[in-house]
Design a protein that fits this description.
Elements lengths: L1 H10 L12 E4 L5 E4 L5 H7 L3 E5 L23 E6 L9 H19 L5 H15 L18 H11 L18
Parallel strand pairs: 1-4
Antiparallel strand pairs: 1-2, 3-4
Length: about 180
């Protein structure tokens, strides 16, 4: 019984439990990031900025359509939401949309850190600057290692599926139909 008590108490220690952020973050059209620590409905934010809709950042996939939140949905704590113009509601998520999200996240992180550069970030920036000189002139500036959250093979697959394909246009030969 003593062993059982020890194993039960070690499972509930604070170091093994996950800590969740008790705030929902929203990236507004101007690029500002607001935190909501109380339950907020999507309709309240849509009233503050008309002609914009809300999207959960976890549902953003390049090449897929936006999945807009309905007005009666509550924002979940720990998630990041982005506001996009209403004219984009039926369009496909592009890399430029993801860049907007990453830029807003970077500016918010800098503001929270007080503009200080950590040594790890400085070392990564120095290695990125060296690797930029090694790029060929004809290659695009996007490197698959620079994109966080994408595995290399998944990124290559998405790039290949985005390329335009030209259909093979051959004439269709028809055989004569004989009636019996």
């Amino acid at each position: 019984m003593g062993n059982m008590m020890i194993s039960c108490t070690t499972l509930t220690t604070p170091c093994t439990m996950k800590t969740t952020t008790r705030a929902a973050r929203v990236i507004l059209p101007g690029g500002q990031v607001r935190q909501f620590r109380q339950p907020v409905m999507a309709a309240e934010l849509m009233l503050d900025s008309p002609n914009y809709f809300l999207v959960n950042s976890r549902s953003l996939n390049i090449g897929k359509r936006f999945s807009a939140l309905s007005a009666d949905e509550d924002l979940e704590f720990g998630n990041v939401y982005i506001m996009f113009p209403m004219k984009r509601v039926n369009s496909v998520v592009t890399a430029a949309d993801m860049a907007v999200v990453l830029m807003a996240a970077n500016t918010a992180a800098r503001r929270i850190a007080g503009g200080k550069v950590k040594p790890e970030v400085a070392a990564l920036a120095a290695t990125a600057a060296v690797s930029d000189h090694d790029h060929e002139v004809g290659r695009s500036g996007l490197n698959s290692n620079e994109i966080e959250g994408f595995k290399d093979m998944e990124y290559r697959f998405r790039l290949a599926s985005c390329k335009s394909r030209k259909p093979l246009l051959d004439t269709i030969t028809e055989e004569p139909v004989f009636s019996r």
